[in-house]
Specification:
In the N-terminal section; belongs to the HFCD (homo-oligomeric flavin containing Cys decarboxylase) superfamily. The chain has 14 helices and 19 strands. The chain is of the alpha/beta class. It folds into two domains: 177 residues, Flavin prenyltransferase-like (Rossmann fold, 3-Layer(aba) Sandwich), CATH 3.40.50.1950; 213 residues, Rossmann fold. Strands 12-11-8-13-16-17-18-19 form an eight-stranded mixed β-sheet, sandwiched between helices. The chain has a five-stranded parallel β-sheet with strand order 2-1-3-4-5, sandwiched between helices. Strands 6-7 form a two-stranded antiparallel sheet. The protein starts with 8 loop residues before the first strand and ends with a helix.
């Protein structure tokens, strides 16, 4: 987690579930980003993770009861000075007590006094997550402004699997940073910037492509484009947490955990990506082509490894299909298509000039334009650029996390869907 701006004050609330062990990794990431973290644990949480672990990682005593540090009125002071309250894990019991407005321990008392963003990351068995009581509690909390993330689907305790798994710590830290960036952009006062995680994509089907593609030259070598996949993954993560039904078509990527509540389909070549994207796009309301697709592929595949000779071999290339253009030319009413352009400027035009030309050439509804080069766009955690619209609009996307850029893209998409 990269720090954006000065250190912030975070309350990390830990409740009593087996996923509490992952809170330690979240805490470590928050501290490495330079933030001050106060752990407030329930007594049940300390049955899973000892206080010494949290204290060693945070550099502060763990707080649990309302009768600790009574002269400092901690149950009020903690919430007042926090820039973010992060709940990892948020158990079914904690969500129920939050929805009821209970104040029967230090953590729930702190939540009642907090006026900063509150991010709850649920973890529980599938039956508990899908129970009508939990569904109602989550809806109540979201209506009040608490961000309740959709859980991941996967291995739970024992042999059980299904939705209810805690998202991985890097994803939790990414959303924590997103909310801190939003809070800082508003100066902690009147909210001027759009909220990054509204539930405005519920009922929408979204397809996102991410990463690069690799075209085999021989059994060893490939031809491809640089891409870590981070921006596409951020787009998928944010869309899922805004309520969308998301399919992520992932090519060659860095070592990234699958986003929570997202259907991931893995591909390698451009032709495989084309087939997967077009198949998923049949029922989609929005398609975002964030992948760095290889424009060319070898005209033929060598059955054996190409040997190193005195002269480099000449390898004929042929064009790959233009997936973005194919999506645009399909006769699918009311479907939005968003493209990405990685550009460099030269004596003939700027990055933005080339981006506008690509938007006109491709015919998509929106185009994200990134300047690329050393330390820009590819294989880094932050990003910036411009969002161009077919209607002639142009919006600057300031430097920030890739999740923040994703949120601004979805703001524009949601506005057009309305």
């Amino acid at each position: 987690m990269t720090q954006a701006g000065p250190p912030r004050e975070i309350v990390l609330g830990v409740s009593g579930g087996i996923a509490a062990y992952k809170a330690c990794e979240v805490l470590r990431r928050l501290r490495e980003a330079g933030h001050h973290v106060q752990v407030v644990a329930t007594r049940a949480a300390l049955e899973f993770i000892g206080a010494a672990t949290f204290e060693a990682l945070s550099g502060r005593p763990v707080l649990t009861g309302v009768f600790e540090n009574v002269p400092d009125v901690e149950h009020v002071a903690l919430g007042r000075r926090a820039d973010l309250v992060l709940l990892v894990p948020a158990t079914a019991d904690l969500l129920a007590r939050m929805a009821q407005g209970r104040a029967d321990d230090l953590l729930t008392s702190t939540l009642l006094t907090a006026r900063c963003p509150v991010l709850a990351v649920p973890a529980m068995h599938t039956e508990m997550w899908e129970h009508p009581a939990t569904v109602d509690n989550v809806a109540t909390l979201r209506r009040r402004g608490t961000v309740v993330l959709e859980p991941a689907s996967g291995r739970l305790t024992g042999v059980d699997t299904g939705p209810g798994r805690l998202p991985e710590p890097p994803e939790i830290a990414e959303f924590a940073r997103l909310l801190l960036e939003w809070d800082a952009s508003n100066g902690g006062g009147e909210r001027r910037e759009p909220f990054p995680l509204p539930r405005d994509l519920e009922g929408r089907k979204v397809v996102v492509s991410a990463g690069g593609t690799a075209e085999p030259l021989d059994p060893v070598r490939t031809l491809g484009n640089r891409s870590s996949g981070r921006q596409g993954y951020a787009l998928a993560r944010v869309a899922a947490q805004r309520g969308a039904d998301v399919t992520l078509v992932a090519g060659t990527i860095a070592d990234l955990d699958p986003p929570a509540a997202v259907d991931v389909r893995r591909v390698q070549t451009t032709l495989e990506m084309r087939d997967a994207v077009l198949d998923a796009a049949k029922a989609a309301d929005v398609v975002v082509m964030a992948a760095a697709v290889s424009d060319f592929r070898p005209a033929s595949l060598s059955a054996g490894k190409i040997k190193k000779g005195e002269e480099p071999p000449s390898i004929p290339l042929e064009f790959n299909p233009d997936i973005l253009r194919e999506l645009v030319t399909q006769d699918v009413p009311r479907r939005l298509v968003v493209g990405f352009a990685a550009e460099t400027g030269d004596e003939h035009g700027s990055v933005l000039d080339y981006g506008r030309a690509k938007l006109e050439r491709k015919g998509c509804d929106l185009l994200v334009v990134n300047a690329v080069g050393a330390g820009k766009a590819f294989e880094v955690e932050d990003n910036e650029g411009w969002l161009l619209g077919a209607d002639g609009s142009s919006t600057s996307l300031p430097m920030g996390s890739k999740a923040a850029l994703a949120a601004r893209v979805w703001d524009a998409v949601a506005e057009r869907l309305r």
